[in-house]
Design a protein that fits this description.
It is a single chain. By secondary structure, the protein is of the alpha/beta class. Helices cover about 35% and strands about 25% of the residues. It is built from six helices and seven strands; from the N terminus they run βαβαβαβαβαββα. It has a seven-stranded mixed beta sheet with strand order 3-2-4-1-6-7-5, with helices on both faces. Strand 2, helix 2 and strand 3 form a beta-alpha-beta unit. It is globular. The two termini are about 20 Å apart.
Length: about 180
C-alpha cells in the first residue's frame, strides 16, 4: 500500500503588487492555519518518507511552519517544477519515486492539488467527497491510499480518499474525523 498526502500551501499575501506570484509570502491567516493541519497530521500519525515541495515562497514557508509542529524525519526535495505543474507531469514524478517510499507528502498549488485529488479518488466517504468536489482551499489536505506495491503502478481512479480536511474544519472539532 502507498499513501499520498496532497497539501495546498497556506493562504498567501497580495499586499505587495510588485512581487511576482512565485515570491508571494504567506499572510497571517496562512500562518495560523498551518499548525491546525500539523495537529491533524500528528493526530492521524501520518509520517511521510519524503516531502516534495514546490520551491515557491509560500510553499516553502508552509513547510517550515509545518515542521515546527510535526516531527518530520524524512527526505525533503524542493522542486521548481511543482509551481505550475500539470496533473500529468506530477503523476509522472510520482511514478518515478523509489519503491522504498511508502508515504509521500506533496506541498503544492491549485488547481493541480484539487484536480489531482479528484482524479485519483475512486472511493470515498460521501461527505468527504462532497467537500472535495466543492473546493480545495488553502492549507487543505487530502490523504489518499493506493493498494499498489510500487509508485510506478499509481493511476487515476484508484485511490481511497482516506481524509479530506481544511483549516476551517479543524477549528470546529465536531467535524474532525
Amino acid at each position: 500500500m502507498r499513501t499520498l498526502l496532497l497539501l495546498r500551501h497556506g493562504k498567501s499575501s497580495w499586499d505587495n503588487p510588485d512581487l511576482c506570484d512565485f515570491e508571494r509570502p504567506l499572510n497571517q491567516r496562512g500562518k495560523a492555519s498551518v499548525p491546525l493541519v500539523g495537529g491533524f497530521i500528528n493526530q492521524q500519525v501520518l509520517k511521510p518518507d519524503i516531502i516534495l515541495c514546490s520551491a515557491a515562497r509560500r510553499t516553502r514557508q508552509t513547510l517550515k511552519l509545518l515542521r515546527n509542529h510535526v516531527d518530520f524525519n524524512c527526505e525533503i526535495q524542493f522542486l521548481d517544477e511543482l509551481y505550475l505543474i500539470s496533473e500529468k507531469n506530477l503523476l509522472q514524478i510520482l511514478r518515478e519515486l523509489p519503491q522504498l517510499y511508502k508515504t509521500v507528502l506533496v506541498i503544492g498549488h491549485n488547481p493541480t492539488m484539487h484536480t489531482l485529488s479528484m482524479n485519483f479518488t475512486a472511493n470515498a466517504d460521501p461527505s468527504d467527497m462532497s467537500l472535495l468536489t466543492q473546493k480545495f482551499p488553502t492549507c487543505g489536505l487530502a490523504v489518499l491510499e493506493f493498494h499498489i506495491q510500487s509508485w510506478v503502478d499509481i493511476c487515476f481512479q484508484s485511490a481511497l480518499l482516506k481524509h479530506f480536511t481544511t483549516p476551517k474544519m479543524l477549528t470546529n472539532t465536531d467535524q474532525v474525523v
